[in-house]
Design brief:
It is a single chain. This protein is an alpha+beta fold and about 170 residues long. About 20% of the residues lie in helices and about 45% in strands. The protein contains four helices and nine strands; from the N terminus they run E-H-H-E-E-E-E-E-E-E-E-H-H. The protein has a seven-stranded antiparallel β-sheet with strand order 1-9-8-7-6-3-2. Strands 4-5 form a two-stranded antiparallel sheet.
């Protein structure tokens, strides 16, 4: 099991803009081109009157781990988004256990909370997640635990956002 946390600042934007960027598969693919071959989002409405949510289909490129490769990996996540107050958001990202997936995916279980907090002209992005590493893909060796590789793959969802908005800020100058 791995617990991962991150904190970033996306400059000169709104939390709505950050949320929209996060839910854009093309941007996630572009900013994670070394790991991701495709990302697709679908907005869903459950039959029992619950809030709408998103399904995210992810296809990962083969990754080198120690002296071998993982092969292509794919899985599906669900993302539930709640608005908190006037300008903040909280998203819960979870691995869909019933969704299509390859046997060789980086984790067996994934649950991440992402918070977007508007502070002046900037958005503070907080992410905290827990995931169970798939040991068929990411080995635990006596000398080296490769679970950081799975953490890197889990972090690909949010760790690019600050750089994306920093680039937009620089381009506007």
């Amino acid at each position: 099991w791995v617990l991962a946390e991150s904190e970033q600042v996306a400059p000169r934007c709104s939390s709505e803009q950050v949320l929209h960027a996060y839910l854009t598969g093309e941007l996630q693919q572009l900013w994670n081109s070394d790991k991701v071959s495709s990302v697709k989002f679908t907005r869903k409405a459950p039959p029992h009157g619950q809030d709408r949510y998103y399904q995210q289909e992810i296809e990962l490129l083969s990754q080198r781990i120690i002296r071998s490769h993982t092969g292509p990996m794919s899985y599906r996540q669900t993302i539930t988004v709640d608005k908190v107050g006037a300008a903040n958001y909280c998203a819960l990202v979870q691995l869909d256990p019933d969704g299509p997936a390859t046997l060789r995916k980086p984790f067996e279980m994934l649950s991440v909370y992402v918070g977007l907090q508007q502070r002046g002209q900037d958005v503070h992005i907080y992410a905290a997640g827990l995931f169970e590493v798939n040991r068929r893909v990411v080995p635990n060796l006596l000398v080296f635990d490769a679970s950081g590789i799975a953490g890197d793959m889990a972090g690909k969802g949010t760790l690019w956002l600050a750089g994306y908005f920093e680039g937009k800020k620089s381009a506007a100058r």
